[in-house]
Design goal:
globular; 10 helices
C-alpha cells in the first residue's frame, strides 16, 4: 500500500506539471520566464537532496552537454506549447512524442525490435494522427503541437542520455542547475515579459514540487517496481492531466479526444510494457 500511495502521488506530481504550466501561461505569464523559474526551483530542490545524500552536485561528464541541451529544449517547448494547447492534450502529445523518439533512436542504433513493438508504435502513431487531423481533437492548434513535439524530442534526448546514469538524482540536480543558467541567459531575449502572481506560484510549485519532489519520489519507488508496473504507471500521466484539465481548468473532453487517447496509450502500452517482470532501472 505504501508503494502504491507513493507511485500514485508521483504520477499526480508529473501530471500537475502540465496543469500548472497551462494555468500559469494562460494567466498571462511569459512562457520563457515561467520555464526559467521552474527549472531554477527544481535545481534548488534537487540540489539540496543531492548535497544531503553525497555532499556534491555533479556538473561534469561526457553526456552532460547533450543532457542539458535536451532538458532546456524540453522546458522551452513545453512552456511555449501551453500558450495554445490544453493541459491534457499537451500531456498526451508530449508522452507520445517521447516514446516515438526513443523508438526512432532504437531503430537508428539498430537495436533488436520485435513485431510487438512495431505494431504498438504503429497503433500509437495512428492515434496521434487521428488526434491532429482537422476535427479530430476539437480544433488542436498546430503551432502548439509543434512546440510540444520539440519539447518531447528534447525530453527524449534527455532520457536517452541518462539511461546509463550511475546516480540519477544527483545528475538530474546538475542538469537542472546548468539548464537554469541556459534559460536565465535566454530570458533577456524576452525582457519585459509579464510575471503574474499565479504564474509565479505555479512556476515555483512546478519546479520544486511537481518536478523536484516528483523526481525524488520516482527514484525511490522505481527500483521497487517491475518494469511492467512502471510502464503502466507512466501511462496514467496523460489520463490524469486530461481529467485534471477538465475539472480544474474547465477544459472540454470530447469523444474524439477520448478515443484518440485510448488508441495512443494502448499502442504505447503494447510497445513499451514488456511481459516479463524484470526489475526496472531508474531513468535520469
Amino acid at each position: 500500500m505504501k508503494l502504491f500511495a507513493l507511485t500514485t502521488l508521483t504520477m499526480l506530481f508529473f501530471a500537475s506539471n502540465s496543469l500548472m504550466t497551462r494555468a500559469g501561461v494562460a494567466d498571462g505569464m511569459d512562457p520563457l520566464t515561467f520555464a526559467a523559474i521552474r527549472v531554477g526551483a527544481g535545481a534548488v530542490f534537487l540540489g539540496v537532496i543531492a548535497l544531503w545524500q553525497r555532499g556534491q552536485v555533479p556538473i561534469t561528464g561526457r553526456t552532460r552537454l547533450l543532457s542539458v541541451i535536451g532538458l532546456s529544449v524540453y522546458l522551452l517547448g513545453f512552456s511555449l506549447s501551453y500558450l495554445t494547447l490544453e493541459a491534457g492534450m499537451g500531456a498526451l502529445v508530449l508522452f507520445a512524442t517521447v516514446q516515438l523518439c526513443l523508438f526512432g533512436a532504437a531503430i537508428t542504433f539498430r537495436e533488436v525490435i520485435g513485431p510487438r513493438r512495431w505494431l504498438g508504435m504503429g497503433i500509437a502513431m495512428s492515434g496521434l494522427t487521428l488526434l491532429l487531423l482537422p476535427g479530430g481533437g476539437g480544433g488542436v492548434d498546430l503551432a502548439g503541437v509543434a512546440w510540444m513535439i520539440l519539447g518531447g524530442a528534447g525530453w527524449a534526448l534527455y532520457t536517452y542520455m541518462g539511461k546509463s546514469s550511475d546516480w540519477a538524482l544527483g545528475n538530474s540536480a546538475g542538469n537542472f542547475l546548468l539548464s537554469t543558467g541556459v534559460l536565465f541567459l535566454a530570458v533577456p531575449l524576452w525582457w519585459g515579459g509579464v510575471i503574474t502572481p499565479l504564474g509565479l506560484v505555479c512556476a515555483v510549485a512546478s519546479g520544486a514540487i511537481a518536478s523536484g519532489l516528483g523526481y525524488a519520489l520516482w527514484f525511490v519507488v522505481l527500483p521497487q517496481m517491475a518494469t511492467t508496473t512502471a510502464g503502466v504507471a507512466q501511462l496514467c500521466v496523460p489520463v490524469i492531466a486530461v481529467i485534471g484539465g477538465a475539472v480544474l481548468l474547465d477544459e472540454p473532453v470530447t469523444l474524439p479526444i477520448i478515443l484518440a487517447c485510448a488508441v495512443v496509450l494502448g499502442g504505447i502500452a503494447l510497445a513499451t510494457v514488456p511481459p516479463s517482470r524484470k526489475a526496472a532501472s531508474p531513468p535520469q
